[in-house]
Structure formats: structure tokens, C-alpha cells
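Check out a protein:
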Amino acid sequence: MEHVRVTAPDLQRRAQLDKARKRMLLCAGLFGVLYVVLAAKLTLATIIHPILPTQAVLDAMQPTLDVTPPAPGRASITDR
């Protein structure tokens, strides 16, 4: 069996990689938590407790047509 000597620079590099790995896991965890919170707020706002518009808003969204649209006509031929 071989014996491998671990040098001080190698130990420092491993420590830096461990620290970076922990930071990456922390950031990934925070991102996951934020994503779940966003999904929960979206679900709450759209499915569980939606806020419906008032009748005044619905009436304002309906178009009012005072003039009847013109009858459809034939277009001129432009390829000749």
C-alpha cells in the first residue's frame, strides 16, 4: 500500500474548496427557499384567495361600439 504525503498547499486548497462548496450549498438553499416562497405567494394570490375585480372595472373593460363596423369589401389585386 502506498503512502501519499499531503502537503500544506494541498490542505489549503482543500480547505478553500470546502468553504466554497459550503457557500454554494447555502446559496442554493436560499434560492430554493425563495423559489418556494414565491410559488406559495403565487398560489395564495391566484388559487386560494383570488381578488376579483369590481363591477366598475369589468364595465370599463367592455368596449363600447357606437358605430357599426363597415361591411367587408374586396381588396384590389396587386400581383398583376
Q: What stands out?
A: The chain has a mean pLDDT of 90. The radius of gyration is 33 Å.
